[in-house]
Design goal:
This protein is mainly alpha-helical. 48% of the residues lie in helices and 11% in strands.
Length: 481
């Protein structure tokens, strides 16, 4: 094709988009951007029985969050019905389609008979050879009808898949499918090819579940006298156990990952690697790098494996790469929702929160984790880690050690990490205890925990007033115990 590349994402609004949907959108977007083409958004909302309120908004939210901007759209198929009727009429006139007046009762009986006899299922073409007079009489009687495509009786329909190569289907195994329903709404088969032609789509990038439908689409294109686009069917995404992706592998709905605190750049990188490879061992790329390298010849034809731990790893990388002010802006709403920060924090409150977030950024994998990681910075300590209490606060020297450290820190005029460390170590030496004991005991006293950021950095951020109060409280606890 010499045309400018035009791809589309064409979801059905039948629920919240899942990981596979958005991976398809991402690959279509990447291919368009790599080739300086256009990416369109089309909402395929012709199945009114399965329409779910709010799904369109969730589809758009997912795309916008991931940075998949569209050049045209969104288009809605429900607003384009005359185009599909016109195409159906043209196919009937050319002998490529016909009206079917079979009732649901007859079709049910037909299927039951086929099942009982063990014969291939599919429409038996009862209405395919109705005469013009018979059709006219049925129409005059007001009998409801659908429009079916007249599949060839023999031969093979082939197409070249950009990912899988030559794919062929025997026509005799494909039944005369419904193109236009009795309510005037098209099925996916007719609507998608009419829209892809009308919108000049050059590359149809979609999931591999549509491979078996592609011969129908190729024949529809031929019936209309149109050139069909390039088809590329993406590999299915499976869970780590190589079974169909489901809730046991993590969230299936894409927007859940937004709400859980994943960053778009992490998800972008992770999804790109689900079925695409740059050809080397690298796993981390910027959006610009991926766009420059992405092409369909690097998409695999075998199942992609969804690894939730790898996604967490990507998210941790993305968090650590964030400039502190940006990371703080992402974390503050979580602190506010937990009541650790007020709805309208002062500048000093925000500065304190930013210092706290900086200390915990290395351990943060999901944004909401910031709440529990930093809670002790904002709230008084109500209890100490039980194992830590047994090990560090039950020793006879614990209370004197904490009181000595408290008095030394209060005397500091320079409350910075080097000075704090020097005084804690000096207290340990003065009482004849190991530096490790002093550090672990102090950590437990000021945070209630055994693990966390660097002790001396933590003390500096907590500030002299909080630290002294906590040291004195822990000393009393140790003495009483």
């Amino acid at each position: 094709m010499n045309k400018s590349v035009r791809t589309r994402f064409a979801p059905s609004p039948t629920g919240s988009p899942h990981i596979g949907n958005i991976r398809t959108a991402l690959f279509a977007w990447l291919y368009a951007r790599h080739h300086n083409g256009q990416f369109l958004l089309r909402i395929e909302d012709t199945d009114r029985n399965r329409f779910v309120e709010g799904s369109v908004e969730q589809i758009m939210r997912a795309c916008q969050w991931l940075g998949l901007d569209w050049d045209e759209g969104p288009f809605y198929q429900s607003e384009r019905l005359p185009l599909y009727t016109q195409a159906a009429d043209q196919l009937i006139a050319s002998g490529h389609a016909y009206k079917c007046f079979c009732s649901s009762e007859r079709l049910d009986a037909m299927r039951q008979k086929q099942e009982a006899e063990g014969t291939p299922s599919g429409y038996d073409r009862h209405c395919r050879n109705l005469s013009a007079d018979e059709v006219a009489k049925l129409e005059e009687s007001g009998a409801p009808c659908v429009v079916r495509f007249a599949m060839p009786d023999e031969g093979v329909t082939s197409f070249t898949d950009a990912i899988r190569g030559e794919v062929s289907f025997e026509n005799r195994l494909l039944d005369d499918f419904v193109m236009l329903k009795s309510d005037g709404y098209p099925t996916y088969h007719l609507a998608s090819i009419v829209d892809d032609h009308d919108m000049e789509i050059t590359h149809v990038i979609r999931g591999e579940e549509w491979i078996s439908s592609t011969p129908r689409h190729v024949l529809l294109y031929e019936g209309m006298g149109w050139q069909h686009p390039v088809f590329a069917h993406l590999p299915i995404i499976l869970g780590s156990d190589r079974k169909k992706l489901s809730k046991r592998h993590g969230s299936v709905q894409f927007v859940d990952y937004i709400d859980q605190g994943y960053l778009p750049e992490a998800m972008f990188n992770f999804l790109t690697m689900l079925g695409w490879s740059p050809g080397d061992d690298r796993e981390e790329f910027s959006t610009e790098e991926i766009v420059s390298m992405f092409d369909l010849d690097k998409v695999t034809d075998h199942a992609a494996i969804f690894d939730g731990q790898k996604l967490l790893w990507y998210n941790g990388l993305a968090i650590r790469k964030k400039p502190l002010h940006e990371l703080a802006a992402l974390c503050v709403p979580h602190l506010q929702a937990a009541g650790l920060l007020s709805a309208e924090p002062s500048e000093s409150d925000l500065a304190y929160a930013q210092s706290v977030i900086a200390l915990e950024a290395e351990r943060l994998k999901l944004l909401p984790e910031i709440v529990e990681l930093t809670r002790f910075f904002f709230e008084e300590i109500s209890e100490y880690d039980s194992k830590g209490t047994k090990k560090w606060l039950s020793k006879p020297e614990s209370a004197p050690l904490l009181k000595l450290i408290s008095s030394k820190l209060q005397a500091l005029t320079d409350f910075t990490v080097p000075s704090i460390e020097a005084e804690v170590r000096a207290a340990a030496e003065e009482l004849g205890v190991g530096a490790g004991q002093a550090i672990h005991t102090t950590r437990l006293a000021v945070s209630g925990r055994l693990v966390g950021p660097g002790l001396f950095e933590m003390i500096e951020v907590l500030g002299i007033e909080r630290v002294v109060a906590r040291l004195e409280k822990a000393a009393e606890f140790a003495q009483a115990g």
